Structures are given as structure tokens and as C-alpha cells.
Input
Amino acid sequence: MQHTGIDGAAVPASSATSGSPAPAPASAPDANPWQDTIAAADQALEEAARLQRGVQHNLKLMQDVRALREELRKAHAEIDRYRGMHARVVVSMRQLEEAHTSAMSRLHADSEMLRVRHRVYRLLAEHYARVALRLDPQTFAADRDRVLQHILFQRRKGVPPEDIGLSDLAFLLL
Output
């Protein structure tokens, strides 16, 4: 005699625990298939619920990944914007530095020339005051040009204009 197990498979009578066949209740053959079907359905529902939770978790993770990608895209866009701003600032700073350098060199040259001219006029004024000559504009212009040439020549040799005195120019103004 064979018995059906929980899974509905036939079990030989020799494998029964008591060794003697137990009388089966009248509703047992009808109840076992239903119980097996209900247990299988419960197991399938649990598996389906587990799969649904897994799919929901996977969808949530995909949404999180999309959100993170969007944040990353925005961060890259912001980085690019700041790089552009930085590049423009660096270019303008370099342009300002070049303009400042050229303006400084021009002002330095103008300052040096004014110092030389100031020295020329001061030396000529001392000369004319000492000699007590009448100030003739043509004579003054000629003397000014000669003194200026002499001071520029001395400056190229490394002598500062302040070190040139009236005694150094006496041979030019005779």
C-alpha cells in the first residue's frame, strides 16, 4: 500500500514509520491534494512577494542612480562654468598686468626724462646767474641742447644726472 507525502508523491508502505498500514480517514485522500496546493500557492505567493520587493528595491536603486547622475551632471556643468570664469579672470589679470607694466615703463621713462630736463634747466640757470648774461632765447636753446646731450651721454656711461655739476659743463657754455 502506498501513501502520499506532503508534496503529493507516492511513498511505499515499507517506508512508513509503524510498519503496518494505518487506516486512512475518509476525507484524507481529498484533503491532501488541497493542502499541498495551498502550501504550494503560499510558497509561490511568498516567492512572488520576495521578487516584488527585490524589483521595488532595484527600481529605487535605479532612481537613486539617475538622481546621482543628474547631480553629477550639474556638478560638472558648474565646474565648467567656474573654469570658464577662472580662465576669463586669468586672461584679464594678464592683460591688466601687461598694461600696468607698459604704463609703468612709460612713466619711468617720462620721469627719467623730466629729471634730466630739470637738471639741465637748473644748471643753465646757475650758469646764467653766475655769468650775469642777458638771457637770449636762441643762445639759451643752443646751450640747453648741448647740456642735454652731455647729460644724456654721461647717463649712458652710468653717471646719474644729479652728480653732474656746473664745473663739468663749463667747457660747453663758454
Notes: Residues 29-169 form one domain.
